[in-house]
Amino acid sequence: MQPALLTRYRALEAIAAELPEEPVVVALGTMVRELLLVTGRRDHHLYVLDSMGLPAAIGLGIALSPAAKHHDKVVVIEGDGGLLMGFSTLVTIGLLKPEKLLLVVLDNGAYAATGMQRTAAPAVNLRAAAQACGIDAYDVATIDDLQAVLRGTRGIPGPVLLRVAIGPENRQAPYFLPDPVDLTLSFQRYLAGPATSAR
Amino acid sequence: MPPITSALGLDTKAVVEERSQALIRGIDHIGPTHVLWLPSSTLKGVIDHVEQRAREGAYASIPLTREEEGIGIAGGLVLGGAKPILVVQDNGLGNALTALTTFAQPYHLPLLMIVSQRGGLNEYNSMIHTLTERVDDIVAAADLRSFKLDERVPAERWATSVVAAWEHAAMTHRPVILLCNLLY
Hints:
heterodimer, A: Rossmann fold, two-stranded antiparallel sheet, B: alpha/beta, 6-stranded parallel sheet, 6 strands
C-alpha cells in the first residue's frame, strides 16, 4: 500500500518548526492561510497576498540584500502553480547563486485557492529543472525526509530548491486581509535586526 | 541603429548618446547597490556602463528574464535595506503591471524604474509602437506615478531628473516610473 501523501498543513508545521526565526516569503492563497493556522501571524513571515509567481523573485532579492547577513536562511514557500508562473526566476537564481536562499515548493499539482484546477507540474521534474539551472535540489515525500533535508541544508551554502510532494487536502482557513503596508513594516523591522535579538 | 531624420541634419546617434550619458550620471549619483535590467537598443550605452561599473565593484548588475521578476527582486532588495534601480524598455512594461500594482504599490516599496520610451517619432522599428504608444495611458490607468524625459526637457536636466525621480520614489514610498525617450 502506498503511504499517504503529506498534507500541506503537516509540511508547513515541519517547516515552521525547523525554521522558527528565518525570514519566510509565503505565497498567496491557501499557503498563507494554512501557515497562519500553524503559526499565527509572525513578523518574520512576509505574506504575499497576491502577485502569483513573484515569491521566488522576492526571496531572491532579500537573499541578495544586506539584511541576509543576519539570518541563516532566506526561505520561500511556494506552490507548484506559482513556481511555474515565475519559472524563469530559477535561471536568475542559478545565475546569481544566493547562498542563503531556500525555495520550498509544496507540489500538489493543483491551483488550490481557485478550486483545485490542475497545473502543468506533473509534466516536469522540478528537481531536475532546478539542478539544470545550477541550484542544489531535493525531492521529498515524507515528513522524515523533509525534516532531514531542512536540517541538512542548515549552514550549507545554497541556493537550494526543495520539492515536497503533498496531497490534495486543504484546511478550512479564514481569509487574511491586512493592510500590506503593515506587513512591509513589521517584516522590514525583523529583517534589519540580528536574528538573536528579542522580538 | 539607423538614423531616421539625418537628412534634415539631426544626428540621432549623438542625441541618444548625450541622453544616455545623462542617465548614467543620474544613476551613478544615486549610488545604487544593484541595477537590474532588460535591454533596449536605445539603452545599450546605459547597460554597457552598468556592466562596466559592476566589473569595477561599484554595484551589482543583474540581467533579468522578465520585467515582473525585476519588480520582485527589487522589492526584496528594498525590504532588505538595499537600493536597487530597474532599467527596462516600455515595450515590456505590460509584463510588470501586475507585480507593480499588487506588490510594489500596495506594499509601499520605493523603486525607481528607468524606462526607455519607444515607438514614437524617430523610431526605426515599425513593430514597436503597438504597445508603446499606449504606455502613457496604461501607466496612468494603473495609477502608477510617472515622469517623462524627452526633447522637451533640456539635456542638462536629465541627470538631475533621474536623481529627483529616485528621491520622489523614496519620499512617497512607491514605485516611480521615469519614461525616457532617447530618440525624441
